[in-house]
Amino acid sequence: MKKPKVDAKKCVACGNCEAICPEVFIIKDEDNVSHVITDDLFGLEGCIEAAVENCPEDAITYEEEGGE
Ligand code: SF4
């Protein structure tokens, strides 16, 4: 299954991913970077891909994870 990840070193907290796909991405106050907040990604592929495309820092990856 593909899973999104945010590279905290690249994220500049612009808010695009949260605006596009708030079911998956939230910028947390404690570290001011975007986090993936759910493993329940059913039906969210389109908005995750839109978030990836609209991240100005290319901080989001969305790739297959091994070990299912
Ligand atoms: S779109 Fe990219 S840089 Fe902007 S908050 Fe999301 S992960 Fe961070």
Write the layout of secondary structure elements.
Elements: E1 2-6, H1 16-20, E2 25-28, E3 33-36, H2 45-53, E4 60-64
Antiparallel strand pairs: 1-4, 2-3
Iron/sulfur cluster binds next to helix 1 and strand 2.
Descriptive key words:
single chain; 68 residues; alpha+beta; Alpha-Beta Plaits; 4 strands; globular; binds iron/sulfur cluster
Would you kindly provide a written description of the structure presented here, covering whatever features stand out?
The protein has about 70 residues and is α+β, with helices and mostly antiparallel strands. Helix content is about 20%, strand content about 25%. A two-stranded antiparallel sheet has the order 1-4. Strands 2-3 form a two-stranded antiparallel sheet. The radius of gyration is 11 Å and the shape is globular. Iron/sulfur cluster binds near residues 6, 56, 57 and 60.
* Estimated helix fraction: 10-25%
Summing up helix and strand content along with how strands pair, one would put the structural category as alpha+beta
Bound ligands, named by name, code or SMILES = iron/sulfur cluster
Order of helices and strands: EHEEHE
Mean pLDDT across every amino acid position: 95
Q: How far apart are the first and last residues' alpha carbons, in Å?
A: 8 Å
DSSP strand content: 25-35%
Count of DSSP-assigned helices: 2
Instruction: Identify low-pLDDT runs.
Output: none
Molecular shape: globular
Q: How does the major sheet shape up?
A: 2 strands, antiparallel
Number of domains as seen in the coordinates: 1
